Amino acid sequence: MNASHSKQNIWQVIFASSAGTLIEWYDFYIFGSLSLILSEKFFPDSNPTLAYIATLATFAVGFIVRPFGAIVFGRLGDMVGRKYTFLLTLLIMGGSTFAIGLIPGYSTIGILAPILVLILRLAQGLALGGEYGGAATYVAEHSPDHRRGYYTSFIQTTATLGLFVSLGVILVTRVLMTPDDFNAWGWRIPFLLSVLLVLMSYYIRIKLQESPLFTQLKAEGKTSKNPLKESFGNKENLKLVLLALFGAAMGQGVVWYTGQFYALSFLQNTMHIEFVQSNIIIAVALLLGTPFFIYFGHLSDKIGRKKIMMTGMLIAALAYFPIYAAMDRTADISRKTELENMYRIEGSISTNADGASVQKSTKVRTYSDSTRVREITTTVNDKTDVKTEVVVSNANLAWLVFLVFIQVIFVTMVYGPIAAFLVELFPTRIRYTSMSLPYHIGNGVFGGLLPAIATLLVQQTGNHLAGLIYPIGIALICMVIGVIYIREKKTKDGYAEVAEI
Questions:
Q1: Major facilitator superfamily (MFS) profile domain location, by residue (predicted)?
Q2: What pLDDT score does 136 carry?
């Protein structure tokens, strides 16, 4: 195989793998991006705070089951092949996401609504548990050792880009219709669009060939007969699984979800930043930060994976409190001067889809730095709901983008090199199974529970920064374990392997 053909082949592999993984992340994260609206649609409206926490818990369930998906699909991938396994996970994910967009709300089918959402969220989590390990392994097994960090870093961009695409689709949908229409039925559009993206990705992936390393193993009859036993029943390999979890994936998971999902949750639910502005802040920060996944993946081929990941965890843990305190001050109206002459009240009466009268009253306060605070009171059938929205000035908007961007840099440091790190840690015959489980426990359990745990801590303590205790603690513990127990081995081509404990 000549060099030009080999280069073309690896980029085809990266594009096909990344496109499918991006779409799976898009499917998975629509739920989180719309969590506030979903809490109103699929849960009782008697206690909005409890409904929101229940929605975050349902969101977290998808993460909790990811390790089970890793076991099921990891075993399938090590026995049958990488390609067909991540084709299957793609279809499961796409079908589940599309179905969520069709479920009637709580007001229509009652308790059945959250039950159906929970079942489909479980299916999403199982599918994602099998997707990432397959895509990362597939790309890594096409990559030369000395470029593995660089090539696999393109897979690492897909999670962030999937979140970015989900936010983009939601924003475009929201801007193209009225707020009332979006809240009534427009929020379903991003879910329903999933089916088109999945079919496109399936068409791209079906043309791929199986991984060359796995093909060779299969031809030689050396594939694992029992990947689960070899991965977790073998004492030495189990040590590596535990090291991958507690020395890398656990800390990476909380840094990832703090810098992206908790940042969005904090903007919307703690700071009460208006829906469009909060999504723009996250989307712009993600777009600016995404190239750094590739930079740190490439750098890890030169100086090693461990140094970059551990440094990212340490800096993140030290920086979170001052960053979030600065974010919180930006929307703190107690620190601002109100322009009383600009105070106004707006009112309207309309009819909703059920024919009920909707009375809406909005009190608008303007402050000297151009911040506007809207207190919206909505009354439907004698039920009154009060919401507060903060619209910050363009200067403050740019400042918040910068603060979230810094967090995304931390994300790229811990996440950019980790695919290469995990792939190199385990032998080819059980790689899919062995790497998938610690990755999805670290991200799915420790990371996925973060928004719900952090929001609950804020609710219980009344302290806006209390939620940060969880990610900071996990990141520091993981960093200490990683520094002590991870050993890197330098080859003639650079840092391409991780030695045993």
A1: 13-490
A2: 80
Token pair in block for residue 101: 């967009």
Helix residue spans in 2-111 (DSSP H): 3-33, 35-42, 48-64, 66-79, 82-100, 106-109
User: Which residue(s) pair with 390 in the sheet?
Assistant: 273, 373
Q: Which residues of 59-97 are buried (b: 16+ CB within 10 A; e: fewer)?
A: bbbbbbbbbbbbbbbbbbbbbbbbbebbbbbbebbbbbb
Q: Specify whether the CB–CB gap between 118 and 404 falls below 8 A.
A: no
* Distance from C-alpha of 68 to C-alpha of 125, rounded to nearest angstrom: 9
Neighbour count for residue 98 (Cβ, 10 Å): 18
Task: Please state at what angle helix 431-440 crosses helix 235-244, rounded to 10 degrees.
Answer: 40
**What is the Cα 181 distance to its own chain's centre?**
27
Q: How far apart are the first and last CA of the chain?
A: 37
Strand-strand pairing, 383-391 and 487-491: unpaired
Q: What is the pLDDT of residues 337-385, one digit of tens each?
A: 889 888 888 887 776 656 667 788 889 899 998 899 888 888 877 777 7
Strand bridging mode 344-351 / 383-391 = unpaired
Instruction: Count Cβ neighbours within 10 Å for each residue of 367-381 and write b for 16 or more, e otherwise.
Output: beeebebbebeeeee
